Amino acid sequence: MYTIKKEKVMQNTLSFAKLVKYIENYSFEEFFNDWNVDDFIDYLYDVSEECQNEKWHCEYGATKMVIIMDDEEIVFKIPFNSIRNYWDKTYEFFYGAPSTSTWDYCEAEEERYDMAEEYGFANYLAKTEIVYNTKNGIRIYIQPKCTTRNRHKTTSKRNYRVFSKWYRGSLPIDDTKWLNTFIDCYGAYKLKQFLQFLENEDWDDDLSHDNIGYTKEGKPVLIDYSSYME
């Protein structure tokens, strides 16, 4: 399984300590709704020599932001918490704000990883785990650094075409290269079992090409598997 020990993060004190300092020196008075993410990134670039020198950079989607450091084997995730309900326009995103009324998408990944491990599918997920709670209430998670580039030389596109006919259903992951790589690494039957697991557990509503990737060894993994709060 593709994981990294928490102890290793804490040993790499320089980058991690700086990140904690930057977060703890920022005012989270409004708990950061979704349109405040750029304000926080601007702040990081303003105070951080690492960002200014392009050693760190930030990315984000609908549920979390990711801080990527060139000299680390891991990425740091900060979750957006969501308050129900989208349909009556009370659906809002918040950064790592500890509250029982919100949903932490990184915590959801932790729980889902444990479930995947229980069912024997943890090899196909990059592990998300919490490493720190800052003094101002922001939760920091880690995940092994992956790439969206396929460095694995797949045998043939025919593998995917044969599999898609054999599977006889809509594929929750619609990326030919990723699926073909999975077949090369683990076999078609394992892929069928894994896709059925994703569908049976309702993990299949947000598995776009942005949420899948490859380990440094070229193995296919899910890198964002929290889905959306229902």
Tag the structure with descriptive keywords.
36% helix, 230 residues, 8 helices, alpha+beta, 9 strands, two-stranded antiparallel ribbon
The number of distinct β-strands equals 9
What is the count of helical runs? 8
Computed over alpha carbons, the radius of gyration is: 18 Å
Q: Which of globular, elongated, flat, extended, rod-shaped describes the shape?
A: elongated
Number of domain units: 2
Coarse structural class? alpha+beta
Could you list the spans in which at least 5 consecutive residues all have pLDDT below 50?
84-89, 93-100
Measured by DSSP, the beta-strand proportion falls in 15-25%
Question: Explain this structure to me?
Answer:
This protein has 230 residues and is an alpha+beta fold. The chain has helices spanning 6-11, 13-24, 37-47, 49-52, 105-119, 158-167, 176-186, 188-200, and strands at residues 56-60, 64-69, 74-83, 92-95, 103-104, 129-133, 139-144, 212-214, 220-222. The protein folds into 2 domains: 6-144, no CATH class; 158-222, no CATH class. Strands 1, 2, 3, 4, 5, 6 and 7 form a 7-stranded antiparallel β-sheet that branches. A hairpin with a 3-residue loop joins strand 1 (56-60) and strand 2. Helix 7 (176-186) packs across helix 8. It starts with 5 loop residues before the first helix and ends in an 8-residue tail after the last strand.
